[in-house]
Write a structure and sequence with these properties.
Number of helices of chain B: 16
CATH superfamily of the largest domain in chain A: Multidrug efflux transporter AcrB transmembrane domain
CATH topology of the largest domain in chain A: Multidrug efflux transporter AcrB transmembrane fold
Low-confidence stretches of chain B: none
Number of strands of chain B: 19
Structural class of chain A: alpha+beta
Mean pLDDT of chain B: 79
Low-confidence stretches of chain A: 100-104, 303-334
CATH architecture of the largest domain in chain A: Up-down Bundle
Radius of gyration of chain B: 35 Å
Shape of chain B: elongated
Strand content of chain A: 5-15%
Structural class of chain B: alpha+beta
Strand order of the largest sheet of chain A: 2-3-1-4
Oligomer: heterodimer
Order of helices and strands of chain A: HHEHEEHEHHHHHHHH
Largest interface: A-B, 77 and 78 residues
Radius of gyration of chain A: 25 Å
CATH class of the largest domain in chain B: Mainly Alpha
CATH architecture of the largest domain in chain B: Up-down Bundle
Strand content of chain B: 15-25%
Helix content of chain B: 40-55%
Number of helices of chain A: 12
Number of domains of chain B: 3
Chain lengths: 334, 533
């Protein structure tokens, strides 16, 4: 069975459209994050989350009223949501960090939430989970996460540069950065909280994306040895077409499991699965339209090291390299 | 079946049996109450707190406390030394946590003072000032050692206390970039307040000779409310007297402290009221013996965390036994636990606290598994429809992969968390991808009329390099995540690394052997027609 029989689409013809589309998405995402802010999960923002299970589920408004009346300082900053499957009758209340809570007082806010709801007579309930994160935790987590991500990118850059050539490495890394930015944009559009689970999904996605890119690059390298006459663009295009069936099948099966997680994975995995779905789509798109395209932009005039085996691509064309470094700066600035 | 294939099949079956035994059997056994040897139970795949429920705490060690304590102790010792050597001074105080300032040493006594402070100068830098004043600054390397030791000691103390609490499989570890955070995970515990109190209580027991009091106000003790040098005023427990708080003036230097305690247990006092009895070490007993012998008839304050619990009169020489009275019945067992585990050298504050109720964890794991199974079934269906018989091959490889992954994780004692499940999903994805890559390549080779056997061989050998590249770059990313990531991210990375290794084995070795097995059943002629891909 075949999805495509001898596909011969000219993917690289669309690379400029792709550049525009990607930038529009990324900039729209950045603008959204800048104006509305990124919704941060409790791990990053600090604060208190209390999850309660009721005998009969009260309305979100009733819970909010109770907090407004009885929570010290009022409940206007609290987030109230029903949590998990409706049959579980669970409600989640999240209140922000007030001042520098330290030591024993750290759990005071959780107690306050519980007391506020008890006072309001919303029916019998029990606290099934609390999460209290001090203010200094998020910052450290963010810093560490960024470092881990940047260093792993450098590691991948080094490995691909060693196994293939530098332009390929740049293509793979830019594609990965692209995926992270686009995924962030979608998280911002749909107001998903940035939690540790979302970060794990983001890492999964970057894994997929690099995987996808390397498969295409591997074929490009193979073709470079076999096809001496074709231009680099043609070789890349052929490679993308040759691997198209595999690309679609892999992305499709991965999407299947991500959608299953989204639909059946429960409350905790919701953000995780959403990130996976967006990431798999952008990861597949980026290995074709970003990674491969970058290689052609990067060395439009340089002969290939692998096809001629003489000159290494030391210097890239000025225009291409400046565009490249600009996009990297942008990426980093976000 | 030729010999070569037979050995490959034997290898695969052996690997499968081992990993299924370590990873899958214990899970099934605990579900259906099958017999299981103890060593296997130990190796069982553990669930993380987010799936199992429990308490997750992150504490920060106030390391500066250790430095302050050291400075105060040294200042007291200097005061004693100067007194015994009859060197006059106007004051000794500590302007900052690592500084001791001595003032008013007469010029004639300068040499004597220098001699008296030789001990102090080993850990402090001495710098003379004007008018017979001296400043001692704690050396930076001493400060560093004290800071590190404070964390280690706090860690050990918490560990002892948690073990006394009887929590199964607690995790207590240092974390944080500055190395001043302690992570405590108590699976299955739901009473956070109790756990927190036990972990955080300082538990510092001091026995000091009473020099004045009890008095109802601080001001009655000492001159104008200021205690004489070397003395301090400590409040007594309100609930022992029934009335208001009383104050005692005691010697600053403790006769015996909690460090000298070897054991503590709940008991009752002579009035049959709850009490905690403690036993002192031989060194502590010797000190205690001397102090009690020379102070018969005076009162001894038993001070816990800065409060006088009781102040009985010393009747005779006491060596290795003591009793703390004035404790409520509820506190008795906690107090003896805390005393036995030793005092915390420094204060702790809570940075993070998470309680996952067992029902919440069960919900997470149920929906996580449900979703994974649905995803897996969808993939299996697709592979069967699209690759037909070869799809079976891929599915077998995928299931092998999951079994090996579970087995290895159980073997190395990894903990299954939600991000870990994410690692599982990624591994499944990469596993399917590896097979798809190989199959698509075989199809291409078949279309180029290369013959079935040659196509299969070419498919596997060409794709092997691609797989190596994808797996190594994923490995590099995972290694960095382990190096720099925090707990949950690390769990993800460990799962991923194990998954990568097992996937490389299943997608190349297992899958290829299955093809060869299939081929060996047919003669050369039939093959082209029979490869179902």
């Amino acid at each position: 069975m075949h999805i495509f029989t001898n596909p011969n689409y000219n993917f690289l013809r669309w690379r400029w459209h792709a550049v525009v589309l990607s930038w529009v998405l990324i900039i729209a995402g950045l603008v959204t994050i800048y104006t509305k802010g990124m919704a941060k999960g409790i791990e990053f923002a600090g604060g208190t989350t209390v999850i309660m299970q009721f005998d009969t589920t009260p309305s979100v408004e009733a819970v909010r009223d109770a907090l407004n009346k009885n929570y010290p300082g009022g409940g206007q900053d609290a987030i109230v949501q029903s949590y998990g499957d409706p049959s579980l009758r669970q409600v989640m209340v999240r209140v922000p960090q007030v001042g520098a809570e330290q030591g024993a007082s750290l759990s005071a806010s959780a107690q306050n939430v519980e007391d506020a709801l008890r006072k309001a007579n919303l029916g019998n309930f029990k606290v099934v989970g609390t999460e209290i994160v001090g203010p200094s935790v998020g910052e450290e987590l963010t810093q560490k996460g960024i470092w881990a991500f940047v260093l792993s990118l450098i590691g991948i850059l080094g490995y691909i540069a060693f196994r293939y050539e530098f332009s390929f490495a740049v293509g793979a890394v830019v594609a990965t950065l692209h995926d992270v930015l686009v995924t962030f944009a979608f998280l911002a559009f749909f107001r998903y909280d940035l939690t540790l689970n979302v970060i794990a999904a983001l890492l999964t996605v970057t894994g997929y994306s690099t995987n996808d890119t390397i498969v295409i690059f591997d074929r490009v390298r193979e073709n470079m040895r076999k096809m001496r006459r074709e231009s680099l663009s043609e070789i890349i295009n052929i490679a993308i077409n040759q691997t198209l069936g595999r690309t679609v099948i892999t992305a499709g099966t991965a999407l299947l499991s991500a959608i299953a997680l989204f639909l059946f994975g429960g409350e905790v995995l919701h953000g995780f699965a959403f990130t996976m779905i967006v990431g798999i789509i952008t990861g597949t798109y980026s290995s074709v339209f970003v990674a491969a395209a970058i290689v052609t932009f990067w060395r439009r005039t340089k002969p290939s090291k692998l096809s001629t085996a003489t000159t290494a691509p030391v210097a890239a064309p000025a225009a291409a390299s400046s565009r490249k470094s600009k996009s990297q700066r942008k990426a980093r600035a976000s | 079946m030729n010999k070569n294939i037979r050995w490959k099949v034997i290898t695969i079956v052996a690997v499968l049996v081992i990993f299924a035994g370590v990873g899958v059997y214990p899970i099934l056994a605990s579900m259906y109450h099958w017999p299981m040897p103890g060593w296997l139970q130990q190796k069982q795949l553990k669930l993380g707190l987010d799936l199992k429920g429990g308490v997750h705490l992150v504490l920060r060690v106030q390391r500066d406390d250790a430095i302050r304590l050291e400075t105060e102790t040294e200042a007291e010792r200097l005061r004693d030394t100067l007194r015994t050597r009859n060197i006059p001074f106007t004051s000794i105080n500590s302007p900052s946590i690592s500084q001791i300032r001595v003032e008013g040493i007469p010029p004639a006594q300068d040499a004597a003072f220098r001699d008296a402070s030789v001990d102090l100068a080993t850990n402090f830098d001495r710098s003379p000032g004007t008018n017979g004043s001296y400043t001692f600054n704690m050396k930076p390397n001493v400060q560093n050692t004290l800071r590190t030791e404070a964390v280690t000691q706090a860690l050990q103390t918490i560990e002892r206390r948690v073990n006394e609490l009887g929590v199964a499989e607690p995790q207590i570890a240092e974390q944080g970039a500055d190395g001043d955070e302690i992570l405590v995970q108590l699976p299955g515990v739901t009473d956070v307040q109790h756990a927190k109190e036990i972990i955080r209580s300082t538990g510092l027991l001091e026995l000091k000779i009473v020099e004045g009091g009890p008095a109802s106000t601080k001001e009655e003790l000492g001159q104008n409310g200021v205690p004489p040098e070397g003395m301090e005023v400590i409040p007594g427990s309100a609930d022992t007297t029934g009335g208001g708080t009383v104050y005692y003036m005691v010697r600053r230097a403790a006769a015996v402290s909690g460090r000298d305690i070897t054991n503590a247990r709940p008991s009752v006092d002579q009035n049959n009221l709850p009490a905690v009895s403690f036993t002192l070490s031989s060194e502590g007993a010797r000190k205690f013996g001397t102090v009690t012998e020379t102070n018969i008839g005076r009162r001894l304050a038993i001070i816990l965390d800065g409060r006088v619990m009781s102040a009985p009169t010393i009747q005779s020489r006491i060596t290795d036994n003591g009793q703390i009275t004035g404790v409520s019945r509820d506190e008795v067992s906690d107090l003896s636990l805390i005393l036995k585990s030793g005092a915390l050298p420094v204060n702790l504050s809570y940075l993070e606290e998470r309680t996952i109720g067992p029902s919440l964890g069960a919900d997470s794991i149920r929906s996580g598994i449900e979703a994974s199974v649905v995803g897996l079934l969808l993939i299996i269906m697709f592979m069967l429809i699209y690759y037909r018989l070869s799809g079976v091959n891929a599915i077998i490889a995928l299931i092998f992969n999951l079994i090996i992954l579970l087995g290895l994780m159980a073997y190395i004692g990894a903990v299954m968390t939600l991000p870990g499940i994410a690692g599982f999903v990624l591994t499944m994805g990469i596993g399917v991808d590896s097979n798809v890559l190989i199959f698509e390549r075989i199809k291409e080779e078949l279309e180029a009329q290369h013959g079935v056997r040659a196509s299969i061989n070419a498919g596997f050998s060409r794709v092997f390099l691609t797989l190596l590249d994808t797996h190594i770059s994923a490995l590099i990313a995972a290694l960095f995540l382990i190096q720099f990531g925090t707990g949950p991210i690390r769990g993800f990375a460990y799962t991923l690394i194990i998954g990568l290794a097992s996937n490389l084995f299943t997608s190349t070795f297992v899958s290829k052997t299955l093809f060869e097995l299939e081929l060996s059943r047919h003669s050369q002629r039939q093959q082209a027609a029979t490869l179902s891909i």
